[in-house]
Write a structure and sequence with these properties.
This protein has 26 helices and 24 strands. It is an alpha+beta fold. It folds into 5 domains: 67 residues, Orthogonal Bundle (Helix Hairpins); 242 residues, DNA ligase/mRNA capping enzyme (D-amino Acid Aminotransferase, Chain A, domain 1), CATH 3.30.470.30; 105 residues, Nucleic acid-binding proteins (OB fold (Dihydrolipoamide Acetyltransferase, E2P)), CATH 2.40.50; 156 residues, 5' to 3' exonuclease, C-terminal subdomain (DNA polymerase, domain 1, Orthogonal Bundle), CATH 1.10.150; 77 residues, BRCT domain (Rossmann fold), CATH 3.40.50. The chain binds 2-(butylsulfanyl)adenosine. The site of 2-(butylsulfanyl)adenosine (IVH) has 14 residues, from strand 3, strand 8 and strand 11.
């Protein structure tokens, strides 16, 4: 983060905007696709905020696919396994603030926009759950959908029906059509129980109750959902018929929802001035940990519903509401030691070993310190008293040192000069903060590489987690990933905890992975800078591993989304003798190098979209990625932006600037129906 800021010339806002968009997209992917956020919500919000401000200063640079134009915001897009449904009214998100000053600005802005002398406001807990829309027709629950991208979400009705607190039928004097909006959450106590159970079973634990709720709702088996003990809170509406029967205020709406049997927030606050809002926020802050759900903030809403219409919204969030987020909670503890972990590419990461302390809902005993510079910047010493927090209420982090508590016995941390695992000397590449173990055969690195290769986002080999990988490498059975494919039952059976059944399962999972599509192999190889997205891009551009390995830097750069640095790194990687040897071993062990992909055979059999370049925009009834796959399957290329090289624009509903540009350039525009017809 720092290098970019230092080298970034102040005048080139455009480059900064592009950089921010890339970084936000990167963190979105980590958050949604990999459920592995690397930064806190707060850091994410800061990036987002900076982008919003820059775009405001340069409206000419705003593009339709900027993250700021996306309604889903941090809450994701439809996931695929469920039917997709369009919301009666888009589900928006909220603007966020962390400061009283901005609450003041929010109130002042309301007064500028609305002539009324007094504008009553309602303050509610911000439930940290999964947004949901429940459609009740004539009082019967007919459909439940997640937010998805704001316009279209997953249809999860069957799963929602398993939740006891959600009534299948409304009672009392309900409207003919009600699309109730709220959050599904996992009660905090249940969260703790589920994670303890998962720990015991060796399953990955959920990072926070929100992820747990989201994960539970996505279960395809409603029985599993039922076991999870989800609950809900409702605070708004989308569709509502007849309109004449709408309540006049937010407070009345919540009372109505409750009277029809829906669970709602039990306590709301009222305020007219910014100061009153802040005191409500403080009060809520004091009781929030007693609420059954995780609350990371307060939502401040204009109480009069007619004013909502007058105020309207931006492309992303309503102007009649704002979310205030609480500062993360901190706890005091001792930094007992700093251990060092060796990563897949040899990077040494210092980790804080803490005296266990309870903070924001769970006990923290370790926290990554990222790198040496970070330790120096915080001036951390072993033995220090520190403040620990949960970044974004999720990731344990050392926030600061209590310097005044020092007694002189504290020791500074020194990065080891040799790898703690294999003892090889470590080095630091110029311009990098990271220190690396230079021994490619380092057992720690080998373990990490195999874990990575087998992970869900790469080759997805069930049963090959951290513990099993360590067991196999310790037993001397694995020196690199290619060794996986020569493992035998005779080698595995003598090992501890390896019964006949588990050996059988493991071997067949490994064997099946030979047939994984090329992108998974590429994602798992650990090519520098190549994650899942780049792996998919490369696989569809080159179709076989050999073509990719042979590609020149220029050919790599020609691929959309592959920049110079990545192209150079890929090119160099394939020319490393160790890599070349590994690849030959993988080939001889029968892994799919792309020739077995349907994409490959379709293209080589000369299909009808060969030589065409496509851009997809707007909302389609199918997922964009599916449409893109159909195009690639027929030999076409898919690109992100419209240019003179574009052959077709596939335009769904609400297509925006890309459609305009295509029309200007005379690019052929197809709607979904025409597309389906063409594809056959
Ligand atoms: S009102 C137009 N009220 O937080 C959106 N949202 O971070 C109006 N949320 O999108 C939403 N508690 O999913 C509202 N009391 C509350 C809420 C709440 C949680 C969620 C909601 C929203 C997100 C924004």
């Amino acid at each position: 983060m720092t290098t970019e800021e230092i080298f970034f010339p102040e005048s080139s806002d455009q480059r900064r905007i592009e950089e921010l968009r890339r970084r936000i997209a990167h963190h979105d992917r980590l958050y949604y696709d990999q459920a592995k956020p690397e930064i806190t919500d707060r850091e994410y919000d800061a990036l987002y905020r900076e982008l919003v401000d820059l775009e405001r200063a340069h409206p000419e640079l705003v593009v339709a696919d900027s993250p700021t134009m996306r309604v889903g915001g941090k809450h994701g897009r439809p996931q695929g396994a469920f039917e997709q449904v369009r919301h009666l009214v888009p589900m928006q998100s909220l603007d966020n603030t962390y400061s009283a000053e901005e609450i003041g600005e929010f109130v002042a802005r309301l007064h500028r926009l609305i002539p009324e002398k007094e504008i009553p406001l309602t303050i509610e807990p911000k439930v940290d759950g999964v947004a949901i829309a429940l459609l009740y027709e004539k009082g019967r629950l007919v459909r439940a959908a997640t937010r998805g991208d704001g316009t279209t979400g997953d249809e999860v009705t069957r799963n929602i029906r398993t939740i006891h607190s959600i009534p299948p039928t409304l009672h009392g004097d309900f409207p003919a059509v009600l699309e109730a909006r709220g959050e599904i959450y996992l009660p905090r106590e249940t969260f703790a129980r589920i994670n303890a159970e998962r720990d015991e079973q060796g399953l990955p634990v959920f990072a926070n109750p929100r992820n747990a709720a989201a994960g539970s709702l996505k279960q395809l088996d409603p029985n599993i959902v039922a076991e999870r003990g989800l609950s809900g809170v409702f605070y708004g509406f989308g569709g509502y018929e007849p309109r004449e029967r709408l309540p006049s205020t937010q407070q009345a709406l919540v009372e109505f929802l409750q009277s029809w049997g829906l669970p709602t927030n039990q306590k709301l606050w009222t305020a007219k001035t910014a100061a009153e809002v802040m005191s409500a926020i403080t009060e809520l802050g004091e009781i929030r940990h007693g609420l059954p759900f995780e609350t990371d903030g307060a939502v401040i809403k204009v109480d009069q519903l007619v004013l909502h219409q007058q105020l309207g919204s931006t492309s992303k969030a309503p102007r009649w509401a704002i979310a205030y987020k609480y500062e993360p909670e901190q706890a005091r503890t001792r930094l007992l030691d700093i251990s060092v972990q060796v990563g897949r590419s040899g990077v040494l990461t210092p980790v804080a070993e803490l005296e266990p302390v309870f903070v924001a809902g769970s006990t923290v005993a370790r926290a990554t310190l990222h790198n040496e510079e970070e330790i120096a910047r915080k001036d951390l010493r072993i033995g220090d008293w520190v403040l620990v927090e949960k970044a974004g209420d999720v990731i344990p982090a050392v926030a600061s040192v209590l310097v005044a508590e020092r007694n002189g016995s504290e020791r500074p941390f020194v990065m080891p000069s040799h790898c703690p695992d294999c003892g090889a000397p470590v080095s630091r590449f110029e311009g990098e903060v990271a220190v690396r173990c230079g021994n490619p055969g380092c057992p720690a690195q080998v373990r990490r590489r195999i874990e990575y290769f087998a992970s869900r986002n790469a080759m997805d080999i069930a049963g090959l987690g951290e513990a099993v990988v360590a067991q196999l490498t310790d037993a001397g059975l694995l020196r690199d990933i290619s060794d996986l494919y020569t493992l035998t039952a005779a080698q595995l059976l003598p090992l501890e905890r390896m019964g006949v059944k588990s050996v059988e399962n493991l071997l067949s999972a490994i064997s099946e992975s030979r047939e994984r599509p090329l992108w998974r192999l590429l994602a798992g190889l650990g090519i520098p800078h190549v994650g899942v997205t780049a792996a998919r891009t490369l696989a569809s551009a080159f179709l076989t591993l050999d073509r990719l390995a042979d590609a020149s830097v220029e050919q790599l750069c020609d691929v959309n989304e592959i920049g110079g640095i990545m192209a150079g790194a890929i090119h160099a990687w394939f020319r490393d003798p160790v890599v070349m040897e590994l690849i030959e071993k993988l080939r001889s062990r029968g892994l799919n190098f792309g020739a077995r992909d349907p994409l490959e055979s379709a293209t080589s059999s000369g299909s009808k979209l060969l030589g065409t370049t496509w851009v997809l925009t707007g909302t389609l009834t199918i997922l964009r990625e599916e449409a893109a796959d159909m195009i690639r399957l027929q030999g076409g290329k898919v690109s992100g932006s419209v240019s003179a090289k574009t052959t077709y624009l596939l335009a769904g509903e609400e297509a925006g600037s890309k459609l305009e540009k295509a029309q200007k350039l005379g690019v052929k525009v197809l709607n979904e129906e025409a597309f389906r017809h063409l594809i056959g």
